[in-house]
Write a structure and sequence with these properties.
The protein is mostly helical and 393 residues long. It has two domains: 3-183, Growth Hormone, Chain: A; 205-392, Growth Hormone, Chain: A. Helices cover 82% and strands 0% of the residues.
């Protein structure tokens, strides 16, 4: 297939990112009902999250091999099918052990489809659409809780909610299966030029992993996701319990953070190709440090800090993904993107957990400085990436 098929795939990619965001934020809303249905302790939620995250991590590590074996189209169809099976398992599991097994399907499928879509988008759609695609994911993540809340409020229950989301993912899996040949096109429409691609034999996963620039990218994704999730998950507790902010006000400020992240991806998508992806990434990393400092300083307006941090972080994940084929080479992009997805998963798990330990040992006031430190490390890592790219140009 040639470049003429890409507009249709672009539309499908947007729908895919919205659909894949649907299930990611609903577990917390459904958990009280799930816990009651299976007579579970509160701590059992951690088992579900850990199971899904572990499967997601290993899926990202293997995604490059899957893509090379069956093509991006095959990976998208099969992995979305796994997510659909997992959601069906959530909706029908009679015992908690089967619910955990379903979490494995969802985690493994999500990791592969995330890697597949990001690999394809980085090579074919450019910085603007990559940024908007991640905004589409955020939109889906916002719509999922609305759907689940509405169904629970009307008495339909959490199982019906997961079945409804599973039906959407099932339709997406069928669409990927029908169009799988188009996704495997290696035609000339990629925004990565031949001069920017590393030529030679296609490297193995291990050879890709050992490249210094790949290791830098992995570390950058780890700290980026650590900053994003730690700020989002811990700000409410810090504001209410350590600074005495009223719960309704603190909740509004945290909502502002997530809204700024979404708004940044929408708005900055209009300018990223004019400003340049690398320049926007550098400016965003500096702004992220400034936003984190505003949150950390008790005298500073935390609401402004959360808004600045959310907006600053908005283009970083999609921007780093966009730059991956150019920095690593198209030959190794599939492996590298998979490693980056896995690193992001580890960052989501590790940095907020470290924040919790620091809060336990030294008080909640220790958490904002950790966010600042991670933002500074993120800035430094990206500057090193830029410097190494300049030297190899």
């Amino acid at each position: 297939m040639g470049g003429r098929d890409r507009p249709g795939l672009l539309v499908l990619a947007y729908l895919a990112f919205v659909s894949l965001g649907l299930p990611d934020a609903v577990l917390g809303l459904a958990w009280p009902s799930i816990r009651e249905a299976f007579s579970l302790p509160q701590a059992a939620l951690g088992a579900v999250l850990a199971t899904a995250a572990t499967a997601y991590f290993f899926s990202g590590l293997l995604a490059g091999r899957f893509i090379l074996a069956v093509g991006i189209g095959g990976v998208l169809a099969a992995s979305t099918g796994l997510v659909t099976l997992g959601l069906a398992g959530y909706a029908s599991a009679p015992v908690f052990a089967l619910f955990l097994a379903a979490a494995c399907f969802i985690g493994f499928g999500s990791g592969a489809v995330d890697s597949g879509l990001n690999t394809y988008a980085a090579q074919h759609f450019g910085a603007r659409h990559m940024t908007w695609l991640h905004a589409a994911y955020s939109t889906g993540a916002a719509l999922g809780p609305v759907l689940m809340t509405a169904l629970i409020a009307r008495g339909a229950g959490w199982r019906v909610g997961y079945a409804a989301i599973g039906a959407v993912l099932g339709a997406l899996a069928l669409t990927f299966a029908v169009t799988r040949g188009r996704w495997n096109d290696d035609g000339p429409a990629s925004p990565v030029s031949e001069s920017e691609a590393v030529k030679g034999p296609r490297p193995t996963a291990w050879a890709t992993f050992r490249r210094p620039r790949v290791l830098l990218q992995i570390a950058t994704f780890f700290f980026y996701c650590g900053v994003e999730v730690t700020a989002g998950q811990w700000s409410y507790t810090v504001l209410t319990e350590a600074r005495g902010v009223p719960p309704t006000v603190a909740g509004t400020w945290v909502s502002l953070y997530w809204a700024s992240l979404l708004a940044g991806r929408v708005l900055l998508g209009f300018i990223v190709e004019r400003v340049g992806s690398v320049r926007l990434l550098r400016l965003s990393a500096v702004a992220a440090v400034a936003g984190a400092l505003l949150i950390a300083l008790p005298q500073a307006p935390a609401a402004l800090g959360l808004a600045v941090l959310g907006f600053a972080l908005a283009p970083i994940f999609p921007g780093l993904m966009t730059e991956t084929p150019r920095r690593i080479g198209v030959d190794a992009a599939a492996h590298a993107v998979g490693f980056q997805v896995s690193a992001a998963t580890v960052g989501v798990a590790v940095v907020p957990s470290v924040a919790g330990l620091l809060g336990e040992w030294f008080g909640l006031a220790a958490i904002p400085p950790l966010v600042v430190l991670c933002a500074v490390v993120l800035l430094v890592l990206h500057e090193v990436l830029v410097a190494t790219a300049d030297r190899s140009a």
